[in-house]
Amino acid sequence: MIEHTKAFVDGAWVTASSGEEFAVINPASGGCIARVADLSAGDAVRAVDAAHRAQPGWAKLSARDRAGILRRWHQLILQDQDALAALITLEMGKPLAESRGEVAYGASFVEWFAEEAKRVYGQTIPAHQPSQRILVTKQPVGVVVAITPWNFPLAMITRKVSPALAAGCTVVVKPSEDTPLTALKLAQLALDAGFPPGVLNIVTGVDAPGIGHALIADTRVRKVTFTGSTAVGKILYELSAATVKKLSLELGGNAPFIVMNDADIEAAVDGAMLSKFRNAGQTCVCANRIFVQERVYSDFVARFSARVRALTVGAGDQPGVEIGPLINADGLAKVEAHLADAVARGAQIEVGGMRHSAGPLFFTPTVVSGVTPQMRMASEETFGPVAPIYRFATESEALALANDTPYGLAAYCYTRDLGRAFRMYEGLEYGIVGINTGIISTEVAPFGGVKESGLGREGGPHGIDEFLEVKYGCFDLGSQDDRV
Ligand code: ADP
What we know:
Distance between the termini: 72 Å
Radius of gyration: 24 Å
CATH topology of the largest domain: Aldehyde Dehydrogenase, Chain A, domain 1
Bound molecules: adenosine-5'-diphosphate
Helix content: 25-40%
Mean pLDDT: 98
Strand order of the largest sheet: 14-15-16-13-12-17-18
Structural class: alpha/beta
Number of domains: 2
Low-confidence stretches: none
Strand content: 15-25%
CATH class of the largest domain: Alpha Beta
């Protein structure tokens, strides 16, 4: 199943100049599944050399030709859906059905931006002088660095790389050291699809700060796109200042999930299950705070708890499993710390609350009620299978509680009142609002956050703009010249 353990630079598979490798661990078993090239900061700069060499030629291709290669990549990813899904589950742990879903979701960005490549329209603007003409065109920003996390080893790469490539940029990807294998398989498929050498490069390595610093310090890199923690995002923001790079940051969230008295409770329970427990709670749009209005509070807690109790926990490659392991020991420790803090401050465990016997990184899906804003899980992202439930009385209280966070990625609200739905949509200080739905991710819509959740949007008609510069040309026509 594992074809590639070397990094991919300038169209070739390369080892680290030091010869070093690092271990990739299966979180379900704790076993080492591969040893992958551990590139240094200096090795990473060689990938920038390649991307920089390749960029003018790639940008000069017609949009149609770039789109054709992207479409072939899309087809090859879908043809290899099962193998890619198996690899995602192996190195990241999510259930196989979710991995298959991730491959389809990830591929959808490749298709979408293959289409968008052809729609990078410019403008002409009526000029301020009679003799002048004003032209506005869009050009690729240049070499892009994409730094991606482990929770969606495939989709977080395609969501960044596809619009960049469609726009005419070349890319150096630094995948998470926890999940490099999926990235390398994507590179193989990109090679098969016909991307020229240097257009897409994958730099694997454990020295993320060193590699990140070298890539961002390089003046040839004109754009950094990052998905990961807010803490690291802030470091990259600072590093980018030195060379005034364009920047997209998709950082942490603290998603509120609000259930009003007038909601369809069964639908709200369905939505909360999907929003909270997908990827064992390890997504940045996972419901992190579930607010339930007083009149339906007990009913919601009872129905939701029953569903959570029935979840099947185990290794992601086992049939019927719905909750896999956490990614690593730090992830597990955070879940336990959040829960211990909540219980110490008076919250009640309705379901779960302890580790799971499936293995050292498994945690039993948990519901905890009576949670209050003073508890740690109210202000930090738990990133695990723990659902905290808060009680509220009024619409304005729900809105104030939901917005009381420096984060602003995704929010959800269940209500059957049309006016309230719009009031909540408008009042929630979030980049994404799901009304009566717990699933909001799609390639056709702009994904991204406000406040400390980040900068920029991925997907939708807006996604490609992040990789384009606007150029304005002012043409003075002079006066009529009748010489023959
Ligand atoms: P997570 O908590 O999801 O692992 P991180 O922000 O730690 O989020 O990691 C996301 C990505 O950022 C990974 O590819 C990781 O290797 C990389 N990374 C971590 N620290 C740094 C850093 N100081 N500079 C550049 N990249 C980093």
